[in-house]
């Protein structure tokens, strides 16, 4: 059943391309999702295959919504807004520079705007979500990897390179875990779904006396981030320790962000936010403990608007 009010509003095809899943939706000009579908990003070894699938999804969603999309707003890891490309994304199977904007425009016949996925999240949170009405805030995406979208003085910060806000590749552990970007010790290798699982494995091996090297590498522990959260809720010591370590790394980065940018708010989105206070509680405590005396603290919130990133496509298209 369609919504008559929504049918009268322009529809945008919103695509939130993640390292694991790609969320696709038709969103109206008020930021409301009218129809949606999810694809498994890892099912597509080539960008061309994903683009073809997105065109098929668009046709199905338009039938479900009873309306036609007028444009596409796409957020992708390492997306460059000016060039319309996805460039050397460490958490995607495709390497090099992929002209995803032009590929999708050709497949759908619609105008396409592309940006970094965290920038899309920032646009959505600023217009429809936790940061609505604020002019200085940061949105941190916690999923397969970690991304950052920065708004300063009411303007999205892309920088001269077009890639500003790559918080996930700021070092937090010197000579630490190997990141897909080629560096060692990047924040996203410790603060992300994958990072949490890796830390949990270290905690399990440490508690059992199993062998591991100086970087904590040993036999893998085959669990998901969701399962680590469930174990923490049951009070398992290794899982609780993994969350505490993850929170400490995240808090250190947030202190640096606060000192550099002075944001009013830091809003978190992405799959790892499903852990709720299990992660946010120790993060908030560690952040306040590490913040230099007299430094105004930012609000730390897990987004309560789960569709705000998809709704960011509306802001991206309207800003183009």
What is the gist of this entry?
With 320 residues, the protein is an alpha/beta fold.
Mean pLDDT over all positions: 92
- Going across the major beta sheet, what is the strand order? 3-2-1-4-8
Number of domains as seen in the coordinates:
2
CATH topology tier name of the largest domain: Nucleotidyltransferase, domain 5
Q: Compute the gyration radius: what is it?
A: 20 Å
Q: Identify the CATH architecture of the largest domain.
A: 2-Layer Sandwich
In DSSP terms, counting alpha (H) and pi (I) runs of 4 or more, how many helices? Answer: 9
Provide the β-strand percentage band. 15-25%
What is the helix content?
25-40%
Structural class: alpha/beta
Which CATH C-level class of the largest domain is it?
Alpha Beta
Total strand segments: 13
Uncertain regions: pLDDT < 50 for 5+ in a row?
none
- CATH-wise, what's the superfamily of the largest domain? ATPase, nucleotide binding domain
Taken in chain order, the helices and strands follow as HEEEHEEEEHEHEEEHHHEHEH
* Cα end-to-end separation: 32 Å
Taking the sheet with the most strands, its summary is:
5 strands, mixed
């Amino acid at each position: 059943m369609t919504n008559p009010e929504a049918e009268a509003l322009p529809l945008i095809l919103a695509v939130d391309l993640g390292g694991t899943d790609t969320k696709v939706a038709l969103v109206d000009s008020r930021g409301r999702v009218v129809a949606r579908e999810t694809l498994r990003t890892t099912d597509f070894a080539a960008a061309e295959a994903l683009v073809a699938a997105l065109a098929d999804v668009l046709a199905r969603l338009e039938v479900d919504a009873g309306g036609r999309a007028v444009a596409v707003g796409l957020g992708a890891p390492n997306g460059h807004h000016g060039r319309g490309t996805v460039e050397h994304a460490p958490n995607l199977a495709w390497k090099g520079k992929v002209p995803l904007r032009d590929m999708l425009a050709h497949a759908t016949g619609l105008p396409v705007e592309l940006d970094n996925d965290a920038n899309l999240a920032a646009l959505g949170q600023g217009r429809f979500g936790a940061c609505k009405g604020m002019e200085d805030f940061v949105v941190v995406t916690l999923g397969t990897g970690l991304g950052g979208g920065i708004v300063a003085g009411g303007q999205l910060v892309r920088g001269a390179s077009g890639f500003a806000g790559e918080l996930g590749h700021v070092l937090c552990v010197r000579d630490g875990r190997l990141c897909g970007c080629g560096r060692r010790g990047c924040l996203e290798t410790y603060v992300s779904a994958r990072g949490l699982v890796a830390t949990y494995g270290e905690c399990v091996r440490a508690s059992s006396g199993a062998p591991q090297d100086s970087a904590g590498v040993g036999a893998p522990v085959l669990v998901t981030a969701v399962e680590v959260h469930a174990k923490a809720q049951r009070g398992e010591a290794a899982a609780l320790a993994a969350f505490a370590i993850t929170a400490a790394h995240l808090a250190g980065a947030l202190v640096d962000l606060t000192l550099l940018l002075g944001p009013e708010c830091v809003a978190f989105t992405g799959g790892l936010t499903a852990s709720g206070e299990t992660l946010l509680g120790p993060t908030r405590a560690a952040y306040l403990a590490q913040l230099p005396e007299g430094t105004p603290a930012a609000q730390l919130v897990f987004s309560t608007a789960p569709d705000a990133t998809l709704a960011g496509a509306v802001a991206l298209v309207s800003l183009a």
